[in-house]
Amino acid sequence: MKSEERHELLAMLARESYFERQLTLSSGRTSNYYLDCKRTLYLPRGAYLAGELVLELVKAAGVEQLGGMAVGALPVTDAVMAAAYRNGVDVRGFFVRKETKQHGLQQMVEGAFRPGLKTAVIDDTNTTGGSSLQAVAAMREAGANVIAAITLVERGEGAADAFAREGLKYSWVFTAEEVRAERAAHPVAG
User: Fold this and answer.
1) Bridge pairing between strands 109-111 and 118-126
2) Beta carbons within 8 Å of 30's beta carbon, 6+ residues apart
3) d(C-alpha 61, C-alpha 57), whole Å
4) At CA 23, angle to CA 20 and CA 19, rounded to 5?
5) Where are the beta strands (DSSP E) in the chain?
6) Which residues contact 153 (CB under 8 A, 6 or more apart)?
7) Which domains does the chain have, with CATH numbers?
């Protein structure tokens, strides 16, 4: 991975997206810290850096399309699509709805999805992998050949084992511990 870009994005995540407080995660677990990656992914430079770095994982996984559960996967998927265009990489993007849309085409999987393609489930942060596995089930039902899971930040709380049980190769750009260590090394005032 491009080390200068990786360190710049790590610093942005630590500064913009890391919070220490007691709260409940989407997995239902409680935590004393939270990573709101969208706060970084919706900054122009953050989106650029995340797209470039995650695209490296996408290429290494050999997938032809990627997507994940709305809302978590949307900004990182969009960032990867822009990076793929800049770098001439042929990959498709899509997202999975939490429930089937009741109008239009009434689909769970939306975007440039194609059945049969080698697919990665993507997310901004993974704890247990629960949301991503819900997306995987919908992707497989729609005909995807899901072979990989990719995330921007891996919290190290069970997702790797869950993805292994599903036969998915799992990769990430950062661990939560890296983000926490960066924040501790460079505290943010206020």
Assistant:
1) unpaired
2) 22, 23, 24
3) 6
4) 20
5) 18-24, 30-35, 65-69, 92-96, 109-111, 118-126, 145-154, 169-175
6) 13, 35, 37, 124, 125, 126, 172, 173, 174, 175, 176, 179
7) 3-185 (3.40.50.2020)
- Which residues share a beta bridge with 96? 69, 109
Closest C-alpha to 70, from 93, 91, 39, 48: 93
Joined tokens for residue 146? 């899901």
Residues 6+ apart with CB under 8 A from 10: 174, 178, 179, 182
Ranges assigned E (strand) in 36-162: 65-69, 92-96, 109-111, 118-126, 145-154
User: What is this structure's pTM?
Assistant: 0.93
Sequential pLDDT tens for the chain (190 residues): 679 999 999 999 999 999 998 888 777 788 899 999 999 999 999 999 999 999 999 999 999 999 999 988 999 999 999 999 999 999 999 999 976 656 555 678 999 999 999 999 999 999 999 999 999 999 999 999 999 999 999 999 999 999 999 999 999 999 999 999 999 999 887 5
